[in-house]
Design brief:
nucleotide-binding; ABC transporter ATP-binding protein; binds adenosine-5'-triphosphate; ATP hydrolysis activity; transport; ATP binding
Length: 288
């Protein structure tokens, strides 16, 4: 089966901006959560805009459910639930009014399910959204996105600014969504601990370019960071070094085969590496 979402060589520039989204290629398989990380301004929101066709890409192809999406493809849009960071709906609406609008937009809108989410999330139906806390607004957006029975959820910073308890609740909702066969999630986030909890793959974007995609298993068992002294660093096989970063007396070296590195370099400490540390090494490190 083809992937649920597939980007091939997607590029985009903006007038009066030096930024370039540069031939971004990655895919989200059916049944997987893909975490999308990158520094501020790396191009995550731009990529999501290109996927949803709210931003016109310059080149490349994007396939959703095996098809390129055109403006008139409402059928495809119904299969996608979207949650943005920040204001998803007009502030003067309440949840009840929102559901009235959604009923008209989505043929698959499930009022019963929406009301269940309102109850589960403890959201008042008649309070104006402008009086909601940030957590309540995000939960409402997630409830609305899930209530038209999408197959693919696209979330741009949907858990940012939420406390750990609220984030955990929301991650549980995503995991429940994943219980259904062939559901997938694209989750852009700066909160890498959330991604480490739920993502099957993590895609790293840096300065408009896709650096790499790693699976959860590769992250746990393969990628690692060697803590070298200068003299040890000088003796490393350059082929083993993905990137390195000098820090005072130490040099951190990212490797893709931690077990191999432990065998090969017995006098060097080889640590597990977190998503945050990979990001730092990719953004601030150097290549041989
Ligand atoms: N409409 C636009 N016109 C000009 N430049 C834009 C426009 N939209 C985005 N950009 C630029 O594109 C770059 C990438 O922005 P984008 O919002 O995609 O990054 P991001 O990875 O989502 O960042 P963050 O994590 O801070 O949300 C930035 O330099 C931004 O200024």
């Amino acid at each position: 089966m083809a992937d649920i979402l597939e980007l091939q060589q997607v590029s985009k520039t903006f007038p009066k901006s030096n930024f370039k989204l540069d031939k971004v290629t990655f895919s989200v398989p059916y049944g997987a959560i893909l975490g999308f990380v990158g520094e501020n301004g790396a191009g995550k929101t731009t990529t999501i805009g290109c996927i949803l066709n709210t931003i016109t890409k310059e080149s490349g192809t994007i396939k959703l459910f095996g098809k390129e999406m055109k403006d008139a493809d409402t059928g495809l849009r119904e299969k996608i639930g979207v949650v943005y960071d920040g204001d998803n709906f007009p502030a003067y609406w309440n949840a009840k009014q929102l559901s009235e609008i959604m009923k008209g937009v989505y043929t698959q809108w499930d009022q019963e399910l929406f009301e269940k989410y309102l109850k589960d999330f403890n959201l008042p139906a008649k309070q104006k959204i402008k009086h909601f806390s940030r957590g309540m607004s995000m939960k409402l957006a997630i409830a609305a996105a899930l209530s038209h029975h999408p197959q693919l959820l696209i979330l741009d910073e949907a858990t940012s600014g939420l406390d750990p308890v609220m984030r955990d609740d929301i991650l549980d909702v995503f995991l429940a969504f994943m219980q259904e066969e062939n559901h997938s999630v694209l989750l852009s986030s700066h909160i890498t601990s959330d991604l480490e909890k739920v993502a099957d793959y993590i895609t790293f974007l840096h300065d408009g370019r896709l650096i790499m995609t790693v699976s959860k298993n590769e992250l746990a068992y393969d990628y690692a960071v060697m803590r070298c002294r200068e003299s040890q660093f000088q003796k490393l096989d350059p082929q083993d070094i993905l990137v390195y970063r000098k820090r005072d007396l130490w040099i951190d070296v990212l490797v893709s085969d931690g077990k191999g590195a432990r065998r090969k370099y017995k006098d060097i400490v080889v640590d597990h590496v977190s998503v945050d540390e990979i990001m730092l090494l990719l953004v601030k490190g150097e290549q041989i």
